[in-house]
Write a structure and sequence with these properties.
This protein has 18 helices and 10 strands. By secondary structure, the chain is α/β, with parallel strands linked by helices.
Length: 436
Amino acid sequence: MAISYAAKGLLPATEAAGALKLERLQGASSGDIPRELSNLDVAGQRRLATEVSQQLAGTPSPHRLRDCLQGVLADLAGLRHRWPVSTDLCSEVVVPSPDHHHQQHNNNNYTTNNNNNKTTNNTQQQQQHHNTTITSTQALSTASPSPERERTKIQLARKGSRKQLQIEWVLRVVEKLVAGHPTGHLRALRVTDVGGGKASLAVALGEHFGPEHVEVTVLESSRALVFQGRQRVLQKGLGNVELVVGDASQQSFLDNLGHGSNKNDNNSSNNNNNSSSNNNNNNLQLPPDIVVALHACGGLSDVALALAASSGAACCVCMCCFMAHRDLRVGGVSSQAVWLGLPAAQLTSVLRAASLTAEPSVCISGMHTIAAIRADALLRHWRFPALKALRPGHEDLKAASVPTAISVRVACFPEEYSPCNFAVVGQPQWAKTAPE
């Protein structure tokens, strides 16, 4: 009605501008407003009506939105302070030697390097012992990349292969996680790539470590992507990489984990398209040793972290697309907000802040905040008895330790690799157990 009256010149200019709540009409002459509105077709008038409705409903302007989100982030500043960010290429993780499980340790402690500790000129490091069951590790010291590795990065950057740089970063993190596992030198560790798509990361992991060190399973809900990934694995001739159709957010998947054969994808297409199909029923019978997810969109990051937590596994989960997949069930039962331990409205504001690329400072603070929230949640939910309970009678359990705690950090790879460059990295701490 207001648009119609204003178009006919039946409303004074100031009254028309106020009624329409359009800043661009403020100060217009009485003749300008009818002229502008009369030029609108029906679709244009509908768009204008929608704009008015949104403003009447209180849709915030960009400045109001920024101020609102900054207020929410300010309330969570303590969380970011508790979880400082490692912005280097890859943070060094202090890991046990290959004969770690033969060494004497004080109680159930695992030694980690803290940012406040100084390193000696050799490999000896001043170390901090954690007596608590669940601990958090702040930003760790930086591993100095070799000149050759640096040259490789420059070459890849010039080619525009940012994804390859991200994969290389994850490989370096997984190197530390594999080296830190007490049985990493005795058997192939089970690595689960959640939402691994066409297996770009999984193939890199399989090639880099080889079958003697890792067996990689890509868990992907899209059958089309699984088919494409299997073709890639077949072409590479990798026997330690497989892809299965499955959804880690489903309770049925978690119920089957560690209890019998994989029921998610036992169809014949795997036998035809994957050279490692003979292992298809085995890799998901036991929980993973390491969970990885590269650019896990939105709630998929929480699904991956929940899988690591329930399995007592190490993890490296890189986040992106923060508002996506918010309907996924985390841990098979919880909503995203419940699992993260945050009110839904507050979580939405944090996720919106992390997605606000037009305001870089807000965006970075938002990404840091959600990473810190997820790190806290991983500590809260990580269940170290689960690994022992799900592996009764297996040789790797008899020869190894069981995890008694986990060290977690918020990591960050260079922004040149991707603007969404935050990750949560968790590494179990170990204590020797006597063979059963």
